[in-house]
Amino acid sequence: MIFDHIWDSPAPSKVIAFSWQLLHDRIPTRSNLAVRGILVADVPWECVGCVGSVESSIHLFLHCPSALKVWYDIFRWLGLVIVIPPSLFLLFEVLRASARNVKIRKGFLLIWHATIWSLWKARNGSIFANESFAPNDIVEEIKVTSWKWSLARLKVPPCMYYEWTWDPGDCLLR
Q1: Any idea where the domains of the chain sit in the sequence?
Q2: Residue 52, strand partner residues
Q3: Burial state string for 130-156 with b = 16 or more CB within 10 A and e = fewer than 16
Q4: What is the pLDDT of residue 47?
C-alpha cells in the first residue's frame, strides 16, 4: 500500500507525518477549516497561489497553477517527463516508481517531502507573513531543503550544492 512507502523516506518525521495527513486530506486548508466551522465568514477562502479558487488540499498542492509550475520544474530537474495525474496519491506513486533503484527511490521520496513541505511553508508565509507565493522561489527552497536533508539523512557520500542542483540522481548514485 502507498502509505507503507511514505514512512520509508529519510525526511524528518514531522514532514512525513504532514505528508500522511495531506494524503488523507487532514491538513488545515481553508476548505477544511470551513467544514469544521473554524473559518469565519469574512475570511477569504481563496488559494494564495491563484485567484478565484477555493483552497483545498488537492488544489493547493496539485491543481493550483503555481503548484503545477513547481511540480513541472521539479520533475524537469529530476530528468523526468510527466503528465500530472489527477490525485496526490498517483503523483506520489509516479515519483516513487520512476526511480531506477533503492538509493534513487529514497532520494525521490525525500524530494517529494521537501516539495510538499516547501509548498506548505510558502502558503503559510503568504498568509501569515505577507510573503510572496512565487513558484521559482519555492523550487529553489526545495532544492536547498532536499540537499540539506540528503546530507544529514541519506547514507551517500556528500555532494556539493551545485552538483545537487545539476543532477541529484548522480549524487544519489555515489
Answers
A1: 11-172
A2: none
A3: eeebbbeebbebbbebbbebbeeebee
A4: 92
Q: Which residue has the cell 507565493?
A: 133
**pLDDT (average), residues 73-97:** 92
Angle between helices 102-128 and 13-23 (to 10 degrees): 80
- Contact between 49 and 133 under an 8 Å Cβ cutoff? The reply is yes
pLDDT above 70 for 17: yes
Long-range contacts of residues 9-14, Cβ cutoff 8 Å, at least 24 apart: 9/106, 9/109, 9/110, 9/112, 9/113, 10/106, 10/109, 10/110, 10/149, 10/150, 10/153, 10/154, 11/109, 11/110, 11/113, 11/114, 11/117, 11/149, 11/153, 12/149, 12/153
Q: pTM, whole model, 2 decimals?
A: 0.93
The three three-digit cell numbers of residue 85, written as one number: 495525474
